Amino acid sequence: MGCFLGAATLGPAFAAQDVYDLSKAASGAGWKLVNRGATAVIDGVRKAVRLDERPGNGIAWLEGSKFTEGAIEFDVRGKDVPQQSFVGIVFNGIDDATWDAVYFRPFNFNNPNPENAGHSVQYVSHPVFTWQKLRAERPNQFEKPVRPVPDPNGWFHARIVVTALKISVYVDGAAEPCLEVEKLGNRGAGRVGLFVGNNSGGDFADLKIIPAKTEK
């Protein structure tokens, strides 16, 4: 398991929350599945959920979640298969088509081509700022390599810090973000969900939502 960074690391502006048992997402209780099926997975100490592979994006929404600013932490596992592993988190979600997301492409983690390796972690803001639009109009700004480099077939820990102006992404306890970009749009509070991309599945565990203390 990656190094876990709790509320003390984030400072006094954040309030710790419970870790979600994601294996319960497979039953559907408290979760809404969009274009995916889900299976409970027990992997050592992790109680995880596996989202299956289907064409198009898939989301498992945490019903009743409300997140504006703060941090989201989770463990995730994809696979080293080109174009079949897009795994991450959606937040500030308004509906199934309107949300922000940070997601990873594990098949690029160890890619010897620097350009492909530079597409390992991505921030998007749908429906306007898709990865295609951002790559075409603002190349190399909203996607970067991941440092330290995780095992593309193994579990790794991600921490996404969201403020009104900025998105910062940390992997496996790194002191410095592997991606730090301006936040696109200003939707305010919205739902949090697990994300998998086109023709992709993925495993998720130990989701932790840490809102800013000012959030009601």
- Listing every helix as H and every strand as E from the N terminus to the C terminus, the arrangement reads HEEEEEEEEHEHEEEEEE
**From the helix content, strand content and strand pairing, which structural class follows?**
mainly beta
Terminal CA distance reads: 32 Å
What percentage of the residues does DSSP assign to strands (E)? 35-45%
Number of domains: 1
Number of strands: 15
What tags apply to this protein structure?
seven-stranded antiparallel beta sheet; 7% helix; 3 helices; disordered N terminus; mainly beta; eight-stranded antiparallel beta sheet; Jelly Rolls; 15 strands; globular; 216 residues
What does this structure look like?
This protein has 216 residues and is mainly beta. The chain has one domain (7-211): Jelly Rolls. The chain has helices at 7-10, 114-117, 131-137; strands at 19-20, 31-34, 38-43, 46-51, 58-62, 70-77, 87-95, 98-104, 121-126, 143-144, 155-162, 166-171, 179-182, 191-196, 202-211. Strand 3 and strand 4 (46-51) form a beta hairpin. Mean pLDDT is 90; it is low at 1-14.
